[in-house]
Hints:
Helix 1 crosses helix 2 (43-55). A four-stranded parallel beta sheet has the order 1-2-3-4, with helices on both faces. It has helices spanning 13-31, 43-55, 101-108, 138-142, 145-148, 174-185, and strands spanning 35-41, 63-70, 118-125, 155-161. It is built from six helices and four strands, in the order H-E-H-E-H-E-H-H-E-H. The chain is α/β, with parallel strands linked by helices. Helix 2 (43-55) links the parallel strand 1 (35-41) and strand 2 (63-70).
Amino acid sequence: MIQVLFLENRDNVAHQVKWIWKLLNQLKTNYGIPHVNLVAHSMGCVSVLMYLNQYGYDERNSKVKRVVTIGAPFNDLEVGKRTPYIEDHPLTTTGPVKMSPLYRWMKANNIGMPADIRFLNIAGNLQNGTFSDGQVSVNSALSLRYLVRDVRRQYQEYIIHGKQAEHSLLHENEQVDQIIGKFLTH
């Protein structure tokens, strides 16, 4: 397992996509690693999805087999920015009632993502009336389902409840670790 932390973790998505490309290229070119699983948190999830849309078939890089997203702001207006309010757009059977410009772009351009990637999506609900993890609404996180289920792709989602579902605690949560471990090994 290789842990990657972006030094500039609130930099724009386009820069993070380039960094992911470089990393996966180095893993294949220098270390001969043919495939990887990616686990991302918050803005990193959006960057991973954008990477897959743009470079999912790039044979110069390690192939992505499974993706875990944790507390992802897929349908937020300003990804990676703290806002005074939590963006929450209700979900219907066909998708979010309102789509952010980035979400709309991802929906229109997800043709570059390989159909065989398996997804596990984890959201947090503090159960304090915000229907969020304190930074990302459950609806924003779960809006991923409409970006990846339009092909025969395997998709699972979980909502973690309670105080341990706080945004920055999600990736430190033992229940989340167990769910991820099971997903990556089965």
